[in-house]
Design goal:
The protein is α+β, with helices and mostly antiparallel strands. The protein is built from three helices and four strands; from the N terminus they run ααββββα.
Length: about 130
């Protein structure tokens, strides 16, 4: 991915909130790739939600910078999962952001419940 001009703040660096958009985009793409259709889950009354986001900002990106986002998806507990994500600037792979995004699935009654399809793609916590 590449940084667009409008994602930068007055200091000329990517605004801190924009990194969450980058991370979310990659999470959604990953889920699609492993057969989890976010929209289909929503139509069925299952909502995948973020309950906690931890981001460590290490180095700022600037307009035009290219970057890659890495992702590991793990079960954290019976009712929670986590995306461990890292953003690296290209081509030097300089660490930019380290993130841990905790989520759960809410069933049609609004109660936490990990559906079988989602559980099948989760790896055990390490």
């Amino acid at each position: 991915m590449s940084v667009r001009d409008y994602e930068c703040d007055m200091q000329g660096i990517v605004n801190n909130s924009v990194y969450q958009n980058y991370l979310e985009h990659v999470r959604h793409e990953y889920l699609k790739r492993v057969g989890i259709d976010f929209a289909d889950y929503t139509r069925k009354g299952i909502n995948l939600v973020v309950v906690r986001a931890e981001l460590d900002y290490r180095y700022p990106l600037k307009s035009g910078d290219r970057f890659v986002v890495g992702l590991n998806f793990r079960r954290e507990s019976q009712l929670k999962f986590a995306f461990y994500q890292d953003i690296y600037r290209l081509p030097d792979m300089k660490p930019v952001v380290k993130a841990k995004i905790i989520g759960t699935a809410l069933n049609e009654r609004g109660r936490p419940q990990i559906p079988a399809g989602l559980a099948a793609v989760l790896t055990d916590r390490v």
